[in-house]
Backbone:
């Protein structure tokens, strides 16, 4: 296992301490229980956004904490749901009395723990709504999930809901924007290599030198199929067809296209994939009006990529363009 | 070889086409010869900045083209210097009559080809100055270099020189800012794994499962030493000591600290390294006043990292903070 780490049991704490040291103008980190809040939390008069999930997917979610996006992130152990006490304490730390939105990726542990935390927070008088993101078209159910898994659309949901909250919209309005991304977003991923969970010390799965896994989950959970390695054009074609057919996206739609790296894939390859995706969308009459290319929802050092398309309307495009200032996404401020 | 590519010979062209499709609001791409310019080039009344080098180091340099940073980037083939005609044509495309600064990483081919291009551009009446970046303390000379190699300080030099140019300062003033970064910046890197050059098809070097290479170059050229894998704390200690002793950085200095991923290393590990670097600097009385953590100077899918420290003064800090809008770095606009 070749990693730039110290003891596996210290990894998440040390990473959070590193984030606090690197971004003191943006973030504050609490360690017991572990959560990250924007430096100026709670922000008066604003709905607060809280997300979280297992670590190993950086910059998601702590890298999306800051003005225009999340108020708090709750990182669990690597590939492990955050505990209810993390989520409750984060919720209390960012609540300004205008309500708190929980943005939850659809994994069984995450959903249960966010539900429990929401109940506890409500018991303390905080209004909480939750939106479950379940955008991965690869499989109906999977190892850690009843229903579809939550992947790339989460980044878009957190960005646009964060912008809606920054406009001082109500909790139900912010939740509605978030649900619209969930309704109009679809994703699918693939892996060229496995990742290695630090405290396990060996690859999560074996993938022969000439094979890839289509429909991989972000914890290395199985996808749709193993097959011989193909070209970027063919791989993008397989992923894009599954996504485009599912909503379905239609001729004349405008979309946000997000090509995501899994952690071990260099940017040069992601742009090759974006080129293929762009050609495919053009062929279907779907116009890419906004784009994001980079490694934002990772699986440790896994090599591979995922594609996300979100159908845009005027509101979503405007909220996507709004200023954001986080460690992972930053523009316009 | 597991990569998201089509034919190796098409990789750079397809990547550039992907960049143009993903960032139409920022960039224009010319393919024959290959260069990338900011969309609104040439910008009247402003010194223009041109950089370039082999591909495979993305987002450097094309990802740094845009307002507040580079006017043009010239990508060579993978790990291969750009040709003089690329550089001349890019120089002409961005020249507004106020002079052009070439920012050149110190590799033999790059330096020769930029020199030849500068002579040709001068022959067409364009004033050109060049600054050579040679910040890598690992080795005195190396496979592709007489003198030190140019690595992470290049990103800082391009950012602050770009900000100086945006302030409409003269060519000699912009060059002076760039030289200050070169004079006050030091870097060193290490690799956990090799990368594979697509048209070669096998790893550039062999690195056993329990070993790492300290002082690696960004083309996989040899560093200072092979040794058994160590902890993040020990690795950071080795790199930081070499950097801190070299300038030397002194108690009371303020620095920009840049922890760079080599392409295959996930962000979670880079923050662990940043934490270690921060502790080491604190122990030396060196204050980290600005930071950058991410994969900005990559070596395809190599796993590993490099550290860069640049001693700051008020001018460099202000120029670093100035607005920038590129595919790879973006804030404040």
Residues:
């Amino acid at each position: 296992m070749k990693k730039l780490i110290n003891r596996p049991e210290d990894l998440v704490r040390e990473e959070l301490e590193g984030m606090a040291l690197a971004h003191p103008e943006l973030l504050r980190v609490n360690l017991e229980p572990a959560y990250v809040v924007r430096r100026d939390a709670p922000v008066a008069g604003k709905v607060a956004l809280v997300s979280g999930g297992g670590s190993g997917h950086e910059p998601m979610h702590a890298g999306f904490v800051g003005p225009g996006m999340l108020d708090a992130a709750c990182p669990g152990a690597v590939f492990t749901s955050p505990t209810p006490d993390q989520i409750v304490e984060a919720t209390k730390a960012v609540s300004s009395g205008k309500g708190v939105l929980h943005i939850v990726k659809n994994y069984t542990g995450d959903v249960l723990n966010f539900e429990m935390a929401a109940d506890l927070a409500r018991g303390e008088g905080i209004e909480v709504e939750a939106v479950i993101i379940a955008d991965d078209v690869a499989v109906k159910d999977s190892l850690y999930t009843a229903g579809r898994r939550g992947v790339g659309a989460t980044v878009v949901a957190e960005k646009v809901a964060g912008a809606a909250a920054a406009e001082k919209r109500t909790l139900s309005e912010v939740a509605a924007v978030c649900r619209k991304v969930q309704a109009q977003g679809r994703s699918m991923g693939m892996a060229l290599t496995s990742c290695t969970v630090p405290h396990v010390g060996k690859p999560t799965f074996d993938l022969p030198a000439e094979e890839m896994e289509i429909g991989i989950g972000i914890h290395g959970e199985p996808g749709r199929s193993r097959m011989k390695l193909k070209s970027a054009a063919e791989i993008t074609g397989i992923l894009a067809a599954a996504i485009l057919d599912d909503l379905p996206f239609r001729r004349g739609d405008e979309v946000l296209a997000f090509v995501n790296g899994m952690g071990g894939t260099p940017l040069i390859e992601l742009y090759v994939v974006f080129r293929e995706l762009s050609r495919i969308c053009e062929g279907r009459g779907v116009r890419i009006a906004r784009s994001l290319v980079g490694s934002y929802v990772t699986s440790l050092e896994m090599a591979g990529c995922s594609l996300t398309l979100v159908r845009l309307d005027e509101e979503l495009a405007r909220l996507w363009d709004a200023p954001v200032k986080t460690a992972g996404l930053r523009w316009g401020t």
